[in-house]
Specification:
5-stranded antiparallel β-sheet; globular; mainly beta; about 70 residues
């Protein structure tokens, strides 16, 4: 998995009815874009994540996400 600051990390729901969770990557802590990442959710809460196989990186710019 490779990401850059400003990318979005989408964690897919694991059970039926559970929605995806999207966070913004605010800092890449691993070498060459690899995890772990410092992320921020919509409420402004920040944490450090090492995403699992149920996660994908959305590399599109904010203007492209309409």
């Amino acid at each position: 998995m490779h990401a850059s600051k400003g990318d979005r990390l989408v964690v897919h729901g694991r059970v039926v009815g559970q929605q995806d969770h999207t966070v913004e990557i605010v800092e890449v802590l691993g070498p060459k874009g690899n995890p772990p990442y410092r992320v921020k959710d919509a409420k402004g809460h920040e944490t450090i994540m090492s995403p699992g196989p149920d996660s994908v990186v959305d590399h599109r710019k904010a203007a492209d996400r309409t």
